[in-house]
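re: ur question from yesterday

yeah so i grabbed the chain u mentioned. its 154 aa long if i counted rite. heres the sequnce exactly as i have it in my notes:
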Amino acid sequence: MSSKTKHARGRAPQRVILLVDDDASVRELIGRVLVDEGYSVWLAANGDEALNTVASKPIDLVLLDLNMPGLGGWDIYEKLTTENPLLAVIIITAKPNQLFTSLGAGVGALLEKPFDFPVLLQTVKNLLAEPAERRLARLTGRQAEFHYRPSAKP
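ran it thru and got these structure tokens back, copy pasting raw so excuse formatting
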């Protein structure tokens, strides 16, 4: 599998996910799990790569880490959603105290690291199935479902 993109072997990709994390081992592990579930996965190590990917390819969902070199995660989120307001975004982070910021920003979900992969996969599935009206409601501050999972630390 290349480090730039991953596709499910022997299956037509269902949906396209952009995974943005500066940690190569995290990208590899999460990317492998998503590919095994049948998703097509693009990888980005920083904000510039993420923004270039979204500008040049159709993306259904973004998994976005907040602690990034250069352009920070919230700056990336703002640029992504300004250009693509209905793009589903899941924040995946070890950065503490991001719940209220995530709610205020209209994020689809917040998963704190470390997280359980079944929770990640269910959250991805839920957001991909979510109607555009619900995403728009969340972005405009109206009541909408929000997925939050605190860290799975013991």
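noticed a couple things. The first strand starts at residue 5 and ends at 6. also The radius of gyration is 14 Å.
anyway ttyl
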